[in-house]
Amino acid sequence: MVSAKKYLAEFIGTFVLVFMGCGSAIFLGCAPDGGLLAVALAFGLSIVAMAYTIGGISGCHINPAVSLAMLLNKKLGITDFLGYVVSQILGAIAGAGLLQLFTSFGVVDQTGGLGTNGLIFGNDGFIAPLIIEIVLTFIFVLVILGVTSDESKSAVSGLVIGLTLTFVHIVGIPLTGTSVNPARSIGPALVSALAGNFDPLANLWIFIVAPLAGAVLAVIVFKVIKTAKAEA
């Protein structure tokens, strides 16, 4: 029963993240003259809101990359890790599905693909977006590991994590649309494909592999930093 509540919390949290974050991109667009910042804030504020809503239930990962980091950091068991990831992906699909429903009512999708990620900076190669997503996820997850490892920071951890996701999006939106979250990428891509737009699936692997790699790198670096601090 306890695990079921955690999984439900992760489902709801990821649903909110995708619905509000991708929804802002769909309805407002991501133009530099205001839209970009609005979308970045929508993603960041979604994290803040959910952190203080479900954080005490599941930890508010709402991101397979974060769950992987917690698994490697021995703060999450393998069973819960799998349950979290499945719940996160289903929540992302539900959020994207509701957005697709709105577009079917005549709402114009400013992104052309439910806010899916892609190589939107004009480079057809995969190396650049792979590096970008690894670096952005590394920064995001490193901050999460830092603030959640210190109980004295628990009161502000949700705000810090949300603001970090915001500035990560400010940099990443013009480059890849910003993923740093496999579930956030999988949900809109699958729903887009079901609606007949298969283009987002072509590069989806980048936005699964890169965030997971960034999370692993963050765990490694955090452990090195933590060890060095203890020895100082």
Question: Which sequence of SSEs, written as H and E, runs from N to C?
Answer: HHHHHHHHH
Total separate domains: 1
| Radius of gyration of CA atoms, rounded to a whole number | 17 Å
- Percent strand equals under 5%
Q: What is the residue-averaged pLDDT?
A: 93
Contiguous low-pLDDT stretches (5 residues minimum) are none
Distance between the termini: 43 Å
Descriptive keywords:
232 residues; Glycerol uptake facilitator protein; 9 helices; globular
What does this structure look like?
With 232 residues, the chain is an all-alpha fold. The protein has one domain (2-231): Glycerol uptake facilitator protein (Up-down Bundle), CATH 1.20.1080.10. Helix content is 72%, strand content 0%. It is built from 9 helices and no strands. It has helices at residues 2-28, 35-58, 64-72, 78-104, 127-148, 157-172, 182-194, 199-202, 206-231. It is globular and about 55 Å long. The termini are far apart.
Please summarize what this structure is:
The protein is mainly alpha-helical and 232 residues long. Helices cover 72% and strands 0% of the residues.
